[in-house]
């Protein structure tokens, strides 16, 4: 079912070479990802991403990327942009989909279309402080993929499973992380 | 004392190497800190049986049932394993120094110095056959279990009666974890298993032992230099198998059927809380898919080889993942009284003073040949040369290959 000439636009060779090189150069594998954020008004703010550290050096993105976030009208806000938790869903989706493409390339599976639908369920009494037993975050995140590819149904399920296994955002969401917030 | 080869460890690997050396009339000594099969005597829980069926217990010049007794499809208990290996040691007349602990192995000139608590050996070559499973690997979780919770590794576990009453958290769901979880739950102590990556296998497939399929289909003989990613396959956890007279399958569904609770991988200990990963569904999906691919491989081999001595192809129900497994356990609440770490094992090279370990403390080798230090060999590790390398039957082929290399090395030392 697979084709020898699958091209999903992922440079798998580059990734495999990087893995080989970084296994022997552990320091270069230490990356720091960065973002800045500035309050605009109300619950509306803008985050910017322009550089990251890795391979022993500072790197600039090709341009500065910005992401706005706000709260919705039902919260009495202006709904100028997606909510932060929706950006988290977007981050998870992008990470998993990138993984699906990379794994498919490595397995020489040609993708034709990959679509994901995400739902994060939440009891908002948590963030409103209305019930101390309710957590702030998602109770549950559901991701549903529709994938058209030159592969069997099992091979497609294996792509999605392997993508989760190697996904940074999936790991960030499913496992605890120490977070330190300081005020300068 | 001088000899050509010092073999460290008189388990199945060391004994197989000794037999191969004797076949070639290479002078050697096998140094053993305890008795023959020491780890099998002292570091295993009471009820453990081998994962491999008896017929598969073959060493060079010796096989289970050579005396015509026993059940070839059974699985040896630990006393039987010790008996099997002791018989083998006598049969091959292995030159073993028991009760001798190696203090250091270091190189000198073209050879090695092996210092023990009973004297020094000077030799040309050393074979490390001390095993890959000497020390329990316990993950760094950012904290320790709270006071009052007993915490023991699989090496320390003996039987459920020695545990305190109350709930038990078994960390890990590979062969060790599922076997201990099964036994402890049967003792009446409620068991929770924290499930990370694991390898699911049925005990029997199409009426045959799954390891019969592994061997006959050629998968067991797959070589380390033929696989895509040898680092990954060497890290693959042991399959969820158990050797019982009933030849039962012990997968996560079997545990769930008994009432064992499945939760996600143990991700962190914070204060009195054990934090669990939300990845349980994917860990089970990965294992289900991997099992499916393995069975596909068996079926394709059976078809292409015209096999007719087996039953029809089977597929097993997916692992039932609880809909909302908990993300934390409060260890101070009294629900859990014991944590058992079934999180893997690693070799102990604390006495190896030859700089051949990587940053993770694993020995760098090419199929057991420690190329950075000519004359040094290692045997008995996961996928050392073949998929079966860490099994008893793997020692037969690996010892032949490595002793052949070693003999060539000794020949090269002889002045022209």
Overview of this structure, please?
The complex is a heterodimer of chains A (184) and B (416). The mean pLDDT of chain A is 94. In chain A, strands 1, 2, 3 and 4 form a four-stranded antiparallel β-sheet that branches. In chain A, 33% of the residues lie in helices and 29% in strands. Chain A is α+β, with helices and mostly antiparallel strands and 184 residues long. The longest helix of chain A is centred in the middle third of the chain and has 23 residues, at 84-106. Chain A has two domains: 7-82, GMP Synthetase, Chain A, domain 3 (2-Layer Sandwich); 83-177, GMP Synthetase, Chain A, domain 3. Chain A contains five helices and six strands; from the N terminus they run αββββαβαβαα. Chain B is an alpha/beta fold and 416 residues long. Chain B has two domains: 2-134 and 347-413, FAD/NAD(P)-binding domain (3-Layer(bba) Sandwich); 136-341, FAD/NAD(P)-binding domain (3-Layer(bba) Sandwich), CATH 3.50.50. Chain B is built from nine helices and 21 strands. In chain B, strands 1, 2, 5, 6, 7, 8 and 21 form a seven-stranded mixed β-sheet that branches. A five-stranded parallel β-sheet of chain B has the order 10-19-11-12-15, with helices on one face. A three-stranded antiparallel β-sheet of chain B has the order 16-17-18, with no helix packed on it. In chain B, helix 1 crosses helix 9 (394-413). The longest helix of chain B has 25 residues, at 280-304. Chain B is globular. The two termini of chain B are 25 Å apart. The A-B interface holds A 26, 140, 154, 157-158, 161-162, 164-165, 170-171, 173-176, 178 and B 142, 197, 264, 267-268, 270, 275, 277-279, 282, 285-286, 289, 292-293, 324, 359.
């Amino acid at each position: 079912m697979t084709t020898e000439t699958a091209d999903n636009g992922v440079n798998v060779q580059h990734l495999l070479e990087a893995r080989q090189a970084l296994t022997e150069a552990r320091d270069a594998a230490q990356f720091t990802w960065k973002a800045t954020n500035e309050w605009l008004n109300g619950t509306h703010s803008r985050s910017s991403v322009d550089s990251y550290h890795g391979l022993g050096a500072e790197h600039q993105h090709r341009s500065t990327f910005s992401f706005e976030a706000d709260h919705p009208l039902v919260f009495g806000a202006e709904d100028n942009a997606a909510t932060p938790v929706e950006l988290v869903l977007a981050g998870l989706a992008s990470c998993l989909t990138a993984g699906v493409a990379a794994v498919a390339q490595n397995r020489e599976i040609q993708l034709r279309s990959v679509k994901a639908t995400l739902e994060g369920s939440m009891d908002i009494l948590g963030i409103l402080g209305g019930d101390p037993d309710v957590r702030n975050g998602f109770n549950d995140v559901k991701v549903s993929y529709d994938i058209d590819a030159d592969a069997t149904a099992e091979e497609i399920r294996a792509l999605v499973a392997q993508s989760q296994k190697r996904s940074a955002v999936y790991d960030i969401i499913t496992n605890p992380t120490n977070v330190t917030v300081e005020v300068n | 004392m001088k000899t050509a080869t010092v073999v460290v460890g008189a388990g199945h690997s060391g004994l197989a190497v000794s037999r191969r050396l004797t076949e070639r009339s290479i002078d050697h000594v096998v140094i053993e800190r305890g008795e023959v099969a020491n780890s099998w005597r002292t570091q295993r829980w009471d009820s453990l049986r081998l994962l491999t069926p008896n017929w598969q217990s073959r060493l060079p010049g010796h096989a289970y049932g050579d005396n015509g007794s026993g059940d070839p499809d059974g699985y040896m208990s630990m006393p039987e394993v010790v008996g099997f290996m002791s018989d083998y040691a006598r049969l091959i007349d292995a030159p073993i120094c028991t009760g001798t602990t190696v203090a250091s192995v270091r190189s000198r000139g073209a050879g090695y110095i092996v210092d023990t608590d009973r004297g020094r050996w000077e030799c040309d070559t050393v074979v490390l056959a001390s095993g890959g499973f000497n020390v329990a690997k316990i993950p760094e979780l950012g904290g320790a279990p709270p006071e009052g919770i007993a915490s023991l590794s699989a090496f320390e576990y003996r039987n459920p009666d020695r545990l305190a009453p109350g709930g038990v958290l078994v960390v890990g769901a590979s062969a060790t974890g599922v076997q201990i979880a099964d036994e402890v739950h049967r003792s009446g102590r409620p068991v929770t298993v924290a499930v990370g990556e694991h390898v699911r296998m049925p005990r029997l497939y199409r009426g045959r032992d799954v390891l019969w399929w592994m061997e006959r289909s050629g998968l067991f003989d797959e070589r380390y230099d033929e696989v895509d990613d040898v680092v990954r396959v060497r890290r693959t956890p042991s399959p969820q198998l158990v050797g019982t007279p009933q030849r039962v399958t012990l997968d996560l569904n079997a545990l769930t059927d008994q009432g064992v609770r499945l939760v996600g991988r143990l991700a962190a200990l914070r204060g009195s809380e054990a934090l669990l990963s939300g990845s349980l569904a994917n860990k089970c999906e990965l294992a289900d898919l991997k099992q499916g691919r393995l069975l596909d491989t068996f079926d394709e081999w059976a078809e292409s080889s015209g096999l007719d001595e087996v039953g029809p192809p089977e597929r097993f129900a997916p692992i039932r993942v609880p809909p909302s497994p908990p993300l934390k356990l409060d260890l101070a609440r009294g629900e859990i009284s014991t944590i058992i770490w079934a999180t893997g094992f690693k070799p102990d090279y604390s006495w190896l003073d030859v700089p051949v370990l990587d940053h993770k403390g694993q020995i760098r080798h090419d199929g057991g040949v420690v190329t950075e230090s000519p004359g040094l060999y290692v045997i008995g590790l996961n996928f050392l040369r073949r998929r079966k390398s860490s099994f008893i039957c793997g020692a037969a082929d690996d010892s032949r290959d490595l002793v052949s290399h070693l003999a060539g090395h000794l020949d090269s030392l002889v002045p022209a």
